[in-house]
Amino acid sequence: MPIDPSATVAPTARIDPGASIGPRSVIGEYSVVEADVVIGSECRLEPYVYVKRWTTMGDRNRISAGTVLGTDPLDKRFTGERSYLRIGNDNVIREHYTISRGTQPESVTLIGDGNYIMTSGHIAHNCKIGNQTVLCSCALVAGHVEIEDQAFVSGGVAIHQYCRIGRLAMIGGETRVDRDAPPFFLYAGCRIVPRGLNLVGLKRAGFSSEEIAPLKKAYVLLYRSGLKLAEALARIEAEAPSEHTAHLVRFIRSCQRGIAREKNASGLGEH
Fold first, then answer.
1. Among residues 20, 207, 230, 245, which is most buried (max CB within 10 A)?
2. 110-147-185 Cα angle (round to 5)
3. Domain 205-253: homologous superfamily in CATH
């Protein structure tokens, strides 16, 4: 049955017969759900939410008024083929937000679990957002961006296409992100500059002092030692080995755009 009997649909909402609404979900006044949409259990769509075709969301998602999910990508190459937006469980997406599906046929924009996405922003086509991230109001995320778990993106941040933001990184308000932001660090500035460890985020995530210490050493080797990037990474592996520094090194070695670096630093964007 496309609409579960336990779901609540407002009289003014419009649900296409080809959509599926899960148990105990609530669809608010004047919301529109197109064909080929799947909404899981215990989701809540406030009034004036528009869920477009080929969008799937899991359970317990809360979508606020004026949000549009599964929009056609803002990409001149797009020619209308089927692509997808897939949203996991337990996400909060606040008012007046837009998220696009993929550009290429059968491609996907992916939103994980437990994310808190604030108002009046955009996630573009083919992005991959991890779990338990925070995207503050008016953040703009361009196409093919990847944001790892537990990252924090402050208000007014603009992220260039194909950039990556690492796990538990924090981006300060109104920062222009045009290079990759390695995990566990704090970034700010008009053009992204590293400012140290994201100590508040690490402690909130339950990192112990013993886990933080190798990351402090890694930050010094990476940004304060004057070493070339390859040498800094080798020194991190040798002198500050841990599960988290290993993730940091893998992230940096896989960068395609170079990493954010301090002003007047030499060699850190080289591979």
1. 245
2. 165
3. Udp N-acetylglucosamine O-acyltransferase, C-terminal domain (1.20.1180.10)
Please report which residue ranges of the chain form alpha helices under DSSP H. 199-204, 209-223, 229-239, 243-253
φ/ψ (deg, to 5) at 250: -60, -45
* pLDDT value at residue 1: 58
pTM for this model (two decimals) = 0.95
Angle, in degrees to the nearest 10, between helices 209-223 and 229-239: 160
Where the chain has pLDDT below 50, the residues are 266-271
Both structure tokens of 3: 């609409």
> Which is it for strands 193-197 and 185-188: parallel, antiparallel or unpaired?
antiparallel
Q: CATH 2.160.10.10 spans which residues of the chain? A: 8-202
pLDDT on residue 262: 84
Q: Give the CATH fold of the 8-202 domain.
A: UDP N-Acetylglucosamine Acyltransferase; domain 1 (2.160.10)
